[in-house]
Amino acid sequence: MGRMKDFKRFMSFVGKEFNHILRDTRTLMVLIVMPVVMIVLFGFALSTEIKDVKVAVYDPSRDAATSRLISQIDASEYFTVTAFIDSEEGVLEAFRSNSADIALVFEDNFYHRAVHDSDGRLQVIVDGSNTNIGSMAVFYVSSIVSSFQKELAQEAALNQAAAGGSSSSAEAVPSVQIHTSTRMMYNPQMKSAFNFVPGVMGMILMLVCAMMTSVSIVREKERGTMEVLLVSPVKPFSVILAKAIPYFVVSAFILLIVLCLSVFLIKVPISGSLMWVVLVSLLFILVSLSIGILISTLVSKQEVAILISGMVLMLPTMLLSGMLFPIESMPKVLQWISWCVPAKWYIDSIKVMMIQGLGIRYCLDAVLILCGFLTVITGLSVFKFKDRL
Fold it and tell me: CA-to-CA distance for 90 and 58, rounded, in angstroms?
């Protein structure tokens, strides 16, 4: 009998705990959805492969050989030819306008020099600010060019035989050579830090601003001190704003530390305008703060705020912002979802200004999208905050 009572008591505790979990629907949803989200994102996004890399071509010779090689590169699953350039000066503009991730620059009389002089030259220019794409793109281009070189050698041998040349293998196979050289734009040494630092900046600012702000406000709710603050003469939104300002100051200080470490320790230079890098970063801090305030209006427990911040903010920032993996290599559905991740637009902007050294006009669309995020999320936060009151 004693053991039976102990078992019933134990089962009652188990049932009570289940009731707690089932009653807290938000926590239950997070516990169920997070594993699903992680499996889907890691299954599709966690890939070092490249796909649909944008290729610009400068081909002054415009002969049958270069056309075939360009077609083979375009036909591969890794590349998509997006632009044909009329001059070598247009290559830089193609990178600036984001119409190319790599550029192929053929020399004049490419076919004649490759087959008859054994000295065909092809320069592959890569956007080194994205090391994930850069190194893999060079590898795949080199592989396609190597296969094409063998095709040219076989065709030259057949043409020679058809013209009545020697049938001996030593003389029948001409020495066809295509020399491929590589030039890395913005990141000549292909340092991974050039791709890593903007992503880390986005991750740190998002977590510090959003998570800490939401947890701080929810903590006030749990302790019952939020009600005390709200009955004071100060307007409710002013109370929330007053709690967010310290985190804005802390985040600005963290931004200063990250920039100093990047420049002086990691040796990642700020190639563009420091003023615009700081201003866009402050805009992203405001977006992150507004997200934290919105989360605080939706939950009433610190644990739930942390879980939601981890699932809604950290995972998408890591996997869908281009911080770790090329967005171009993801399925279309995940690419569309990445447009809803504020960190993606911030990281894109910082890469353009800090790494590529370009002006604000080359990332103005991303900055305007961040402004849109700030307006919409702040409006939702104010609406939900008043609604909860």
Answer: 9
Strand 120-127 with 102-106, pairing: antiparallel
| CATH 3.40.1710.10 residue window(s) in the chain | 53-185
153-197 residue pLDDT tens:
888 777 777 766 544 444 445 567 787 877 777 776 666 667 777
Instruction: Tell if the pTM clears 0.90, that is, is over it.
Output: no
Q: How far apart are CA 232 and CA 219, in angstroms?
A: 18
At 338, list the tokens.
């990445």
Q: Considering only CA atoms, which of 244, 250, 334 is closest in space to residue 289?
A: 244
Closest CA to 178 of 240, 111, 114: 114
Can you tell me the distance from the alpha carbon of 389 to that of 378, in angstroms, rounded to the nearest whole number?
Answer: 17
Block residue for tokens 């979802």: 337
Question: Taking all residues of the chain, what is their mean pLDDT, rounded to a whole number?
Answer: 78
> Starting at the edge strand that comes first in sequence, how are the strands of the sheet with 102-106 ordered?
79-85, 53-58, 102-106, 120-127, 178-185
Kindly report the CATH number that applies to the domain delimited by 53-185.
3.40.1710.10
How large is the greatest C-alpha to C-alpha distance in the chain, in angstroms?
105
Is 124 strand, coil or helix? strand
CA distance 160 to 175: 12
Query: E-strand spans in 202-287?
Result: none
Q: Alpha-carbon distance 212 to 226, whole Å?
A: 16
Both tokens of 383, joined, read 């609406």
pLDDT at 172: 46
